[in-house]
Design goal:
The structure holds two protein chains of two kinds.
Chain A lengths: L3 E8 L2 H17 L2 E6 L6 H12 L5 E7 L4 H7 L4 E6 L8 H8 L9 E5 L16 E7 L6 H4 L1 H4 L4 E5 L11 H11 L5 E3 L8 H17 L5 H17 L1
Parallel strand pairs in A: 2-5, 2-6, 3-4, 3-5, 6-7, 7-8
Chain B lengths: L2 H18 L2 E12 L6 H12 L8 E7 L1 E5 L4 E5 L17 E3 L3 E10 H5 L1
Parallel strand pairs in B: 1-2
Antiparallel strand pairs in B: 1-6, 3-4, 3-5
The chains are: A alpha/beta, B alpha+beta.
Chain lengths: ~240, ~120
Amino acid sequence: MQPRILELRTKILKKNDDLARQLRADFARWGVLVTNVVSGPGAGKTELLARTLARLNARYRTAAVVGDLATENDAARLATSGSQVKQILTGTMCHLEAEMVRGAIAEWDLNGCDFLCIENVGNLVCPSSWDLGEDLRVLLCAVTEGEDKPLKYPTLINTADLVIVSKVDLAAAVEFDVDAVLGNIQKVRPGVPVLQLSAKTGQGMEEWIAFLEQRRAEKKEKAPATEEHAADGADGFAAISAAS
Amino acid sequence: MHELSIAQCVVEEACEAASRSGGVRVTKLQLRIGALAGIVDEALRFSFEVAAEGTACQGAALVIERVELRVMCKHCEQSRAISDGFLLVCPECGSPTPDILAGQELELTSLEVQSHAAADS
């Protein structure tokens, strides 16, 4: 008997995409704005989020999950903000997947929570393809990393909704050319909004918080806001049912 | 090294699809991977062998079709291939080209499967 060919045309990450779609629908129902913060290790994700959550907590209900290969250090740092925090230990895994986020928030009641921040594993490559059901993917690019980072790691930045040039208080000390990095970001992700920020000095924080508040308000207005993303994965469904 | 996670998903999807169609052994898998999908072929092949071990995909051939990065240039009103690097800039006119038409694919296109009788022989 000859081997048969099965035409599939299914997305490799279909299961993750399906789960992310479910999460997105839950988040929309609960009215929570979800931010997935990605960067290389040491770009300042935890510091930014600790300070962001502390500011938001004055007016909103917030929660955070943070992924690392090991240690609960980052969860402890984020918890100083007063937010509900859960550490995800990924073991050897270099990125977060939708299933890990689902597990981390399973015991929380996020109905009425305003902001959920997900701090991804510090990695500029691997988190790209995993949708976590987020509304916003925010990529940090620290001035200590060099101006050409966006050119070297185009894949992840290409999925970013916002780029934050972080640690700008150190720009002069490390002779960082801000204009060069802004140009490079636009070359690999034309049109992406960019904020320059220092979590330490507070420079750019008002703008960042205002950005989050505005996106949350927009989400609340048009809830349930799942159509656009649901459409992304719809062809995967169609393909698999057509093939089976 | 997220290729291992990708390989595990490939094996899982392939085994399920094969089993749904009554196949017991997958002999070939065809993938479409975009240039901008962030996948290193060699890492994926290595990971696939590991992930396939002990499954219906063990020993199967992995055929990877690469999809080039293609963008829409609004200025030229033309679809353009970005063959050199990942800059989203029209190679003809130099305009920014944020609209990606192709190059982000991570697809399992087809499988070659054997059913029981063939697998036993």
